[in-house]
Design goal:
Helix content is about 30%, strand content about 25%. The strands form two sheets. Strands 1, 2, 3, 6, 7, 8, 9, 10, 11, 12, 13, 14, 15 and 16 form a 14-stranded mixed beta sheet that branches. Strands 4-5 form a two-stranded antiparallel sheet. Helix 1 runs antiparallel to helix 9. It starts with a helix and ends with a helix. Belongs to the CD36 family.
């Protein structure tokens, strides 16, 4: 009876041990592939995927913080006594921002075409100041007209100067925050110019405002065509076309449409650089790997702008395509990107806030700037899921005021070639506790399941050893082996007796 029970026990140990050993070992080998497959199924953009609803209407709160540069020494400038422009930063004026993807078209080549509708709502409780605050700065209409006329003949420029002075006493403008941003500022020069046929440049609006007619607009950001990741998961979220083209106005590689819009990323696995396509500046930004970070208990990698952003080819030759082929005075020192072609000919230039990482010549002409590293453009991602952990998209909008012979209303600044900061913004968002908890659960599955499988495999090995041990003991006690031993003993006894 004992022998039979040992046989049953041995069989059970060997059977379950083999099952656990094989299952555990196989799952240890294939678990990363299984996890990645499930992750792809959830993240690929499809009408029924988990990521689609989050991407279509971002549920995570986003805020746009705007800081204006108020010029505080206008009288000194006009009297010719100022050595520099003095600015006082005002704000932040905080707006809650929401994004909704509309007019979706699913294409056969694993891409999705859509428009991005954005809304902004002022948050007075989060702001420093009111949207009724007055801001004094350069009049963008005068600066733009002077910039557009800079290469014309002197008699025409003098005539334009007389025309501008009919409606403006000088080149400065004071208006409240909401007018500078969304409501727009009326200007008689615009009204008249809109009725002049055959102008060599486009006048897109009847008012000037940095966000005029943009709140809730379907068309302002243009159409996007992005990769759904269905055919190639590594391309998930990458912009294939913007405004139905795969190039912008910049030449060579600078004109390529590429990178993510910042909302959707494939797992990056620690690559050294990321590209973020920014439709506001008609190109992409390259962010370099900066450092490891931890956000709400989740490990990630932070990417940030460095001195290669807006370099214009001075330190990084591949950035020279942001200037014309002939590098003349139109190609400015490193740190400011010319987006005039992207902004209807206005002398608009983009930089990092307070000219961070830019050539010192820019900040040397402005009193009141203090660049710090926390003003940098930053993005933190969890590497295995591609989940954005935190985003601080920070840029500064500037107007180039360059003296133009004949247009005296424009030629009053202390320096003949000044990059005047108008405002800077920070578009900030971070993962919520709910989404952080979801990410932690997914990551626990990825990291902890293999340890569980190792334990399972070890239990299988232990059961196999136990089963083999019981089997050996059973064989040692088996009655089938007894006669053989007894017979050998009898033969030995008979031999000794004879």
């Amino acid at each position: 009876m004992c022998v039979k029970s040992e046989g049953v026990r041995s069989g059970l140990f060997l059977g379950f041990g083999s099952l656990l050993l094989v299952s555990g070992a196989v799952m240890v080998v294939f678990w990363p592939a299984i996890f990645d497959s499930q992750l792809q199924r959830m993240m690929i953009l499809a009408p029924d995927s988990m990521s689609f609803s989050i991407w279509r209407e971002t549920p995570i709160p986003m805020y746009l913080e705007i800081f204006f540069f108020n010029i505080s020494n206008v009288n000194e400038i006009l009297s010719g006594k100022a050595e520099k422009i003095k600015v006082v930063e005002m704000g932040p004026y905080v707006f809650q921002e929401s994004h909704t993807k509309v007019n979706l078209t699913w294409n056969d080549n694993s891409t999705l075409t859509f428009y991005n509708q954005r809304f902004w709502h002022f948050k007075p409780e989060m702001s420093v100041g009111s949207i009724g605050d007055n801001i004094t700065s350069i009049n963008p209409v005068i600066a733009t007209v002077a910039y557009l006329m800079r290469k014309q003949r002197l008699p025409l420029k003098v005539s334009v100067d007389v025309f501008l002075k009919m409606f403006h006493p000088n080149m400065f403008l004071t208006a409240n925050v909401t007018s500078w941003l969304f409501d727009g500022i009326e200007d008689r020069v615009l009204d008249i110019a809109l009725n002049i046929p055959g102008l060599p440049f486009v006048i897109p609006y009847d008012k000037f405002g940095w966000f005029y007619e943009r709140n809730g607009s379907l068309e302002f950001d243009g159409s996007f065509n992005i990769n759904t990741g269905a055919s190639d998961f590594s391309q998930l979220g990458n912009v294939q076309e913007w405004r139905y083209a795969n190039r912008t106005d910049y030449r060579d590689v600078c004109g390529e449409v590429k990178g993510s819009t910042g909302e959707l990323w494939a797992p990056e696995y620690g690559q050294p650089e990321l590209n973020v396509f920014a439709s506001d500046i008609c190109t992409y930004l390259t962010l370099a790997k900066d450092r490891d970070v931890q956000v709400q208990g989740i490990d990630g990698v932070q990417y940030a702008a460095n001195d290669s952003v807006f370099d214009n080819g001075y330190k990084y030759p591949h950035m020279a395509c942001y200037c014309d082929t002939v590098r003349d005075a139109e190609c400015l020192p490193a740190g400011a990107l010319n987006v005039s072609d992207c902004r209807f000919g206005a002398p608009a230039f983009v930089s990092l806030p307070h000219f961070l990482h830019a050539d010192p010549i820019y900040a040397s002409k402005i009193d009141g700037l203090n660049a710090t590293e926390d003003m940098n453009f930053r993005l933190a991602l969890e590497m295995y899921t591609g989940m954005p952990l935190s985003v601080a998209a920070q840029l500064q909008i500037n107007l180039l005021v360059r003296r133009v012979s004949g247009i005296t209303i424009n030629n009053v600044l202390p320096d003949p070639d000044t990059m005047v900061p108008m405002f800077r913004f920070r578009q900030e968002t971070g993962t919520t506790p709910e989404y952080a908890a979801m990410a932690r659960s997914a990551l626990r599955l990825r990291y902890w399941v293999p340890y569980g499988l190792y334990v399972l495999t070890a239990i299988g090995v232990a059961l196999l050893i136990a089963g083999i041990t019981v089997l050996v003991r059973k064989l040692m006690k088996s009655p089938d082996t007894a006669p053989l031993i007894n017979s050998q003993n009898s033969q030995s006894t008979e031999t000794l007796e004879s």
